[in-house]
UniProtKB/TrEMBL annotation:
Residues 793-1069 form the Protein kinase domain. The keyword Amino-acid biosynthesis does not apply. It catalyses: L-seryl-[protein] + ATP = O-phospho-L-seryl-[protein] + ADP + H(+); L-threonyl-[protein] + ATP = O-phospho-L-threonyl-[protein] + ADP + H(+). Its EC number is 2.7.11.1. It is found in: Cell membrane; Membrane; Secreted, Cell wall. It comes from Cicer arietinum (Chickpea). One of its GO terms (biological process) is radial axis specification. Residues 1-27 form the signal peptide. The keyword Manganese does not apply. This is non-specific serine/threonine protein kinase.
């Protein structure tokens, strides 16, 4: 009876149990089918899967989809909760993804997906992580993320999203990380009551870097009380850093570099007690010199921040601060004297600012400081080297200041930290956004420039730079800290002491632990060092890679021990008092690239062993007392580009074999005793390189026109006959002529002596003022060297003329070509004003501005020294390109380069600079067709407080803005107008003034002509035919619209250069 009841019960409920089991099994299979179909659709939209990652995604295996690659199921119902796939190579994101309703993580980075994000994503109400970074998604963000209430992480970085960030793009109150960097978003940051601000209670990391966001940093950012990371670098933000940012008390990382910010650094940052990284400017140049899309994209990022005042001392002294990166930020003031042992600073970069005063000894309390750059400031006094732990620093640079005194001997240090900076994982704590810190400039600088590898050996580059100051006394012995020299690390040490006033003898040893180094590079040039070059300097430091001690007072000979320095690549001992012969052991230096020994008293012959140096690029033994012949073995130095043998006593013929050097671009054998014929050299073309050799056959200017123009005239006429009487008369005439010549010669000598005395008296007065330089140059510049290099400003070296004077090409030393702009006396108000303005211009550096190297001012002469650009000017490029098919990327690149230069002058320079003479002839090109703006700042610098100024009309007719020409009203908008005219010339190939324009009824000017064609829909007639045919036409029309907007007659409608840049970038996309 006990068994009957359970049996009856089981029979009674069996149908129900069977139904229940069957129902749930079907439901489970149905759920698998519901998730499999959208996943298979996802696969269908993948265009390339080279690694067959999705090969197992098939209908037949849909019952086991939880084992598909990248798919994770969760819970008891077997629904898909995680999709992580990377490594695909193209496709689109299928809208079916929104049907996987239980999905919590959608992570598909780096798959090269394109198209727009499907709006069906709003159906994923359980989604917590959305990672779409590193794809090619584009378009605007249409879907409302406010529906995704579970979102914690949103990463859309590294795509091509455009348009404004939707004001209604409100994330859930749980969101912690938002990364929209490296896209093309424009408009303002929607940090208001309807945007981020309503949902920033939990927001910790906000990254909006490298977009085109404009407007100001909203003060509402202070309401995000838990915000730890704010990265808004690489946009076009204006205004100040808001004081309200001090309310974001948890802030740890702030990067505002590469914007157009002004104003003071807010003192309220001191409330952010955990602030660790503060990046105000970033001068690292992203251009890699290539022509690919990436290089164009990166080169758009300019640094236009120009702050006012100093960094508040309270902020500098924050005990949490580890990285302060603010080069060329227009900051002034003094360094604080209150650092204590609680200092956490590891990186301090205030280079190229206006910091004055002394370097405080309390900075030595920052025991972890490994990167210190105070170069190009106004620092004075003595360096507290006994307190600063320089041996422990990976990068130490105080160059180009006014520091004085001696350098005491360094002491051995036990260092806490090796390398530039070590941010431990606990410090990063970025919960999925770890790369934020690795975009900070110093870390990128470290990663790219300082750390390398060779097999399993880590190589660190350590730089200590004391150059361009007023240090005196003997050279001390330098040490490196123990943290740099470990078993698995080798150091390449670069020590720069050049351009000071060090005296005493050249020491036998410069670095104590030289043999522990990988390589050693030392620059002692332009000091007052004397004595001999010790053998032990080379024998005891076989790691020596570069040794530069040019322009000192070093004497003695070069010993054979130098041949043991097998790593030596650069040897520069020019301008000293060396004597003796060149040792044959120089031929052992197989890695030698630059051997510069000119300007000494070296004797003997040129060793034939130098022909073994197959890596040698430059050999300069000019201005010595060398004898013998030019060794034919030099033809084996196949890499040789520059060979300078002039001003010696060499004899014999120029070896024919040397002419076979295919890389040789400069040869100078002038002022020797050479004889015979001049072989034909493929690239050298200057007869001055052969003058001063009385037995060398003449070198007419046409000698190098072609290989066939090398015939020489016969020296004797074999068919000539004369009888005895004619010979006698000839002798008598010759004697009379000789006597007359002797008298003329004596008279000439007297006149020359008088003239030279007068000339030398003038030169001696000129020498009282030296050429002022703003950067390190490979030779000592003087008035005489410039005048000599330009042939006393001969028309032969003339390369251009303009409103401010004439420009000459000058070769000041091997491989150092410059452009000398000889200014018209009277163009400037006075010498003092000229020097004040030019010194300001000398600090300006931008990749699209011609570099001002130095200047000279005298009562009767004024000139500027610029870097020489070999590609000519834009005027020649535009109007001499007949037959050349110039493509859109080149046109766009030139337009962008000029715009970046102008935007920098208008917004980054204080006081701002209005060029006032923008025209194609003032835009220079290099060999890669990068464009550089010249003659900037030579008109008048605008005061910081002035928006407009009234001055005399400057500029060139055809490029002058209407308001400028009629009212003499100067503003940056005048430059914008001129820029628009240049764009019209660039795309049309026509000049700004052309009589043919009058056929269209609007005068000779290109602007109304272009407006007429635009209005009548005849735009194709405006472009050069080759450019229009090659296209792309929509982008060409976009550039035309920009040009016409720039040439608007109404000042208020005409855009600023910052807005022109934004329009250009949108055009590029």
């Amino acid at each position: 009876m006990a068994l009957v009841f359970p049996l009856l019960l089981s029979l009674l409920f069996h149908p129900f149990l069977l139904f229940f089991t069957t129902y749930h099994a079907n439901a489970f299979n149905s759920s698998i089918h519901n998730d499999a179909l959208p996943l298979l659709t996802f696969k269908h939209f993948v265009s390339s899967d080279p690694s067959n990652l999705l090969a197992g995604w098939t209908r037949s295996s849909s019952s086991s989809l939880c084992r598909w690659h990248g798919v994770t199921c969760g819970g008891g119902d077997g629904r898909v909760t995680i999709l992580r796939v990377t490594g695909l190579r193209g496709g689109e994101l299928a809208s079916s993804i929104g049907d996987i309703s239980e999905l919590r993580v959608l992570s598909i980075p780096g798959n090269m997906f394109s198209g727009e994000i499907p709006t069906s994503l709003v159906n994923l109400r359980e989604l917590e992580v959305l990672e779409l970074q590193g794809n090619n998604f584009s378009g605007r963000l249409h879907f409302q993320m406010s529906y995704l209430e579970s979102l914690i992480i949103v990463n859309l970085s590294g795509n091509a999203f455009s348009g404004s960030i939707p004001n209604g793009m409100v994330f859930s109150r749980n969101v912690k990380i938002v990364d929209l960097s490296n896209n093309q978003f424009s408009g303002s940051i929607p940090l208001n009551e309807n945007g981020f601000i309503s949902s920033c209670d939990s927001l910790k990391h906000l990254k909006l870097s490298h977009n085109f966001l404009s407007g100001e940093i909203p003060p509402q950012i202070g309401k995000c009380r838990n915000l730890r990371t704010l990265l808004v670098d690489g946009n076009i933000l204006e205004g100040r850093i808001p004081r309200e940012i001090g309310y974001a008390v948890e802030l740890r990382v702030l990067d505002v570099s590469r914007n157009s910010l002004t104003g003071r650094i807010p003192r309220e940052l001191v409330n952010c007690l955990n602030l660790s990284v503060l990046v105000l400017t970033d001068l690292l140049d992203d251009r890699n010199g290539g022509n690919d899309e990436g290089s164009l994209e990166d080169s758009f990022r300019g640094e236009f921040n120009a702050f006012v005042g100093n960094i508040p001392h309270e902020v500098l002294l924050l005990s949490s601060l580890r990285v302060l990166w603010a080069p060329r930020a227009n900051l002034g003031g003094r360094l604080p004297a209150g650092w204590t042992d609680s200092c956490s600073l590891r990186v301090l970069n205030l280079a190229e600012n206006y910091v004055a005063g002394v370097v405080p000894g309390s900075l030595g309390m920052c025991k972890n400081l490994t990167f210190l750059d105070l170069s190009s400031n106004n620092l004075v006094g003595h360096l507290p080297l006994q307190k600063l732990r320089v041996p422990c620093m990976t990068y130490f640079n105080v160059s180009k200041n006014n520091l004085l005194g001696t350098l005491p001997g360094f002491r051995k240090e036990r260092c806490k930290v090796g390398g530039i900076i070590a941010l431990e994982p606990a410090f990063l704590e970025l919960e999925g956004l770890n790369d934020a810190y690795f975009n900070i400039p110093v870390l990128r600088f470290q990663e790219n420039a300082f750390i390398g590898s060779s097999g399993f050996e880590e190589i660190t580059v350590v730089t200590h730079d004391f150059s361009w100051n007023g240090f005196v006394g003997p050279l001390p012995l330098f040490f490196l800290g123990d943290a740099h020299l470990t078993a698995n690390r080798k150091v390449s040490y670069m020590l720069s002491l050049n351009n000071n006033k060090f005296n005493g003898t050249l020491p036998d040893q410069l670095v104590s632990n030289c043999n522990d180094l990988k390589t050693l590079s030392v620059n002692l040039s332009v000091n007052k060092l004397s004595g001999e070059v010790s053998q032990s300097l080379f024998l005891d430091c076989l790691q020596l890679k570069d040794f530069e001690a040019a322009y000192n007072q070093i004497d003695g000979s070069i010993g054979p021990g130098i041949g043991e320095s097998l790593l030596l690549q650069r040897l520069d001992l020019r301008g000293n008092k060396l004597s003796g012969v060149l040792p044959n052991e120089l031929g052992n230096l197989k890695n030698m690239k630059w051997m510069l020994l000119g300007g000494n008293n070296l004797t003997g012959e040129i060793p034939y062993q130098l022909g073994r140096l197959t890596s040698l690029l430059v050999l300069n033994v000019s201005h010595n007392v060398l004898i013998g012949t030019i060794p034919p073995t030099l033809s084996n130095a196949t890499s040789l580009e520059i060979l300078l043998l002039d001003h010696n006593n060499l004899s014999g013929e120029i070896p024919l074999s040397v002419s076979a050097l295919s890389n040789l671009v400069q040869l100078d054998v002038s002022f020797n005793n050479l004889s015979g014929h001049i072989p034909h050299f493929q690239h050298t073309s200057d007869c001055d390189s052969y003058k001063g050799n009385k037995h060398l056959h003449s070198c007419p200017d046409s000698y190098f026109d072609s290989p066939t123009s090398r015939a020489t005239a016969p020296l004797v006429d074999k068919n000539s006959h004369s009888h005895r009487g004619r010979k006698l008369r000839t002798v008598v005439i010759a004697l009379a002529a000789s006597a007359f010549a002797v008298l003329c010669t004596l008279l000439g000598i007297v006149l020359v002596i008088c003239f030279r005395r007068s000339k030398f008296s003038r030169i001696s007065s000129i020498r009282r003022r030296e050429v002022v330089t703003f950067q390190i140059v490979p030779t000592e510049l003087s008035y005489e060297s410039v005048v000599t290099a330009t042939g006393n400003f001969s028309i032969r070296y003339l390369i251009g003329t303009g409103g401010f004077g004439s420009t000459y090409k000058a070769d000041l030393s091997p491989g150092f070509l410059v452009a000398i702009k000889r200014l018209s006396i009277g163009k400037f108000q006075g010498m003092q004003q000229f020097e004040t303005e030019i010194r300001t211009l000398g600090r300006i550096r931008h990749k699209n501005l011609v570099t001002l190297i130095g200047y000279y001012v005298g009562k009767a002469e004024m000139f500027l020294i610029y870097n020489y650009l070999s590609g000519g000017n834009l005027e020649a490029f535009i109007h001499d390109r007949s037959g050349k098919n110039v493509q859109w990327p080149v046109i766009y690149k030139i337009a962008k380069d000029i715009a970046e230069a102008l935007a920098y002058l208008h917004y980054a320079c204080v006081p701002r600079i209005v060029h006032r003479d923008i025209k194609p002839s003032n835009i220079l090109l290099d060999e890669n067709l990068n464009a550089y703006l010249s003659d900037f700042g030579l008109a008048r610098l605008l005061e910081v407080s002035e928006t407009h100024a009234t001055t005399d009309v400057a500029g060139t007719f055809g490029y002058v803005a209407p308001e400028y020409a009629t009212t003499c009203r100067v503003s940056d908008k005048a430059d914008v107008y001129s820029y628009g005219v240049v764009l019209l010339e660039l795309i049309s190939g026509r000049r700004s003034l052309d009589p043919s324009f009058s056929n269209y009824g609007n005068g000779f000017n290109i602007v109304p002509w272009a407006e007429l064609l635009m209005t009548e829909g005849r735009c194709s007639e405006l472009f050069s035919s080759a450019l229009w045919e090659s296209g792309p036409k929509e982008k060409l029309l976009g550039l035309l619209k920009i040009a016409l907007t720039c040439t608007e007659e109404t000042l208020s409608i005409r855009p600023s250069m910052k807005h022109v840049l934004e329009k250009l970038k949108q055009l590029k996309s």
